[in-house]
């Protein structure tokens, strides 16, 4: 705990009001929205400061949900996706509702279950211009869309590309039963046929899962 000018003190941590959970710089938190009908805001704590009169303020860097960005939510955005913005702010620590976890995209796809306090981030967002970093990411399937971890995809065992069942005239139920899958292009070129069984392809572990269950 270090003293700063004007009687303010920089704090190493802060215990969230009404709980026994503490936060520190670098942690992610849920902050109460002014309109109670809206979901809480997601932010990363950059600093914590106690004022001369006893109040505690937190300096935060906001995460934006897709619908809060210029351009809005798109098909490939996951339900728990947020963007790390360049928007900084100072807020009362009393508005913090709890801790949350913003995972890297890779780590999020490896979660066994997604809780209410789990989010993921794969973009930084420039709030003034509506631009993203990176401005390009890998696309998949015939629809050429980035991967949405909420959607089931299956992988061709020949070309290794990923496909949404709906894009290849297949139901999700049928896709879950496929043991081996070859896309139309590879089937035509190599004379291979798609085989079906009640077991999913072991090669599709990463993207064959349907929407993850909520804890």
TrEMBL record:
Q: SMART domains under this entry?
A: BAH, PHD
Q: Which molecular function terms from Gene Ontology are attached?
A: chromatin binding; zinc ion binding
Q: Where is the composition biased (Basic and acidic residues)?
A: 190-209
Keyword set, alphabetical order: Metal-binding, Zinc, Zinc-finger
Tell me which residues make up the BAH domain: 21-136
**InterPro entries hit by this protein:** BAH_dom, BAH_sf, Zinc_finger_PHD-type_CS, Znf_FYVE_PHD, Znf_PHD, Znf_PHD-finger, Znf_RING/FYVE/PHD
Region (Disordered), start-end ranges = 189-215
Residue ranges of every copy of the PHD-type domain listed in the record: 138-189
Task: Output the SUPFAM superfamilies linked to this UniProt entry.
Answer: FYVE/PHD zinc finger
Q: Work out whether the entry's keyword set contains Nuclease.
A: no
Matches recorded under Pfam families: BAH, PHD
The name of this protein is: PHD-type domain-containing protein
According to its UniProt entry, this protein's organism is: Ensete ventricosum
Lineage of source species = Eukaryota, Viridiplantae, Streptophyta, Embryophyta, Tracheophyta
């Amino acid at each position: 705990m270090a003293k700063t000018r004007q009687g303010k003190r920089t704090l190493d941590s802060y215990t969230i009001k009404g709980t026994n959970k503490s936060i520190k710089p670098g942690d992610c938190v849920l902050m109460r929205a002014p309109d109670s009908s809206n979901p809480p805001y997601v932010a990363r704590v950059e600093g914590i400061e106690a004022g001369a009169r006893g109040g505690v303020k937190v300096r935060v860097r906001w995460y934006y949900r897709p619908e809060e960005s210029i351009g809005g939510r798109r098909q490939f955005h996951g339900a728990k996706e947020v963007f790390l913005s360049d928007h900084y702010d100072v807020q009362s620590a009393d508005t913090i509702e709890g801790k949350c976890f913003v995972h890297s995209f890779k780590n999020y796809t490896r979660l066994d279950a997604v809780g209410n306090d789990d989010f993921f981030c794969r973009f930084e967002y420039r709030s003034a211009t509506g631009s993203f970093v990176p401005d390009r990411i890998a696309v998949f399937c015939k629809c050429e869309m980035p991967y949405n971890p909420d959607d089931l995809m299956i992988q061709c065992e020949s070309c290794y590309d990923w496909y949404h069942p709906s894009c290849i005239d297949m139901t999700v139920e049928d896709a879950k039963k496929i043991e081996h899958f070859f896309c139309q292009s590879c089937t035509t070129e190599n004379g291979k046929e798609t085989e079906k069984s009640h077991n999913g392809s072991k090669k599709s572990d990463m993207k064959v899962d349907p929407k993850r269950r909520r804890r």
